[in-house]
Design brief:
Strand order of the largest sheet: 3-2-1-4-7-6-10
Strand content: 15-25%
Number of strands: 18
Number of helices: 11
Radius of gyration: 18 Å
Number of domains: 1
Largest sheet: 7 strands, mixed
CATH architecture: Alpha-Beta Complex
Length: 316
Amino acid sequence: MRHYCTYFDRHYLYRGLALYGSLIQHDSEFLLWILCYDDESYHTLRKLNLSRARLISLAEFENANPELVTVKPSRQLREYYWTSTSSLPLYVFAQSPDIDLVTYIDSDLFFYSSLQPIFDELADRSIMLIEHRYSPEREYQTAISGLYNVGLMIFRRDGNGLGCLRWWRERCLEWCYARAEDGKFGDQKYLDDWTTRFDGVAVLQHLGAGVAPWNLTRFPVYQVDNRLMAQNQPLIFYHFHAFTIVASYLYETVTPTYHFDQQQVDMIYKPYILAVRHAIHSVANADPEFNFGYGHRGPRSLLGAALSHRLMVSFA
């Protein structure tokens, strides 16, 4: 069984459920560990009774990580989430000695095909990273955000994997803020030198994994026999950075700083929106009093909330 972990709060619950649904579709045997950052998300997810999820309450997580509670007053909410990212895989490992691999995934990912090629590339190595692969017009962001994206990372329970996680955790406890400072940025810039700092690091080469708004003009998605492709490889997952649920029938795909055409929206975003709509309806049936998740950007979004009608998708 594969073990994945993610986190979100009530504002991101619909997207977290879309992620969970895509795993159901493309991985036959898994458990998704979900750290719920507030009571609303925890109690609503309990009502949904997700068969392949293990819920972690914030109290449970913080009791196991008192050092996080110590630094919490010094961090904005988004910064606190980032600070805790490295602690979550360690928490999962601590729950059972039988867990060999933990895959961290951001809750705004969505899978379109099997994840097996990712694990095939990892093979017997200890750590998996994925590059941002910025489009040429966005290469300048590497200096700020770093070479690698935290969106999907794999760690093995061995000296390399656990040592890396513990080192990363200590660095984030020391400093993890939403600004560029002395070669650091949030939890992410720490990853830049891992291929030389740690042994057993794999950098994912599959170009269908990690497609995102920041590299879509470099790796445009196209369709072959009802299958989404990127650079002659199946699209495995897309990172829905800067996506906003404006209302249950209205969605902003990205901010106006990103530029791609309607065909890309139709192929990539509409299946995701349908999954989000399904999540909204499921939550409404299970917990009619839940009323969050609209007009709120995710914990990794740093861009403004200006609307662009060209980028809006409406479902009646």
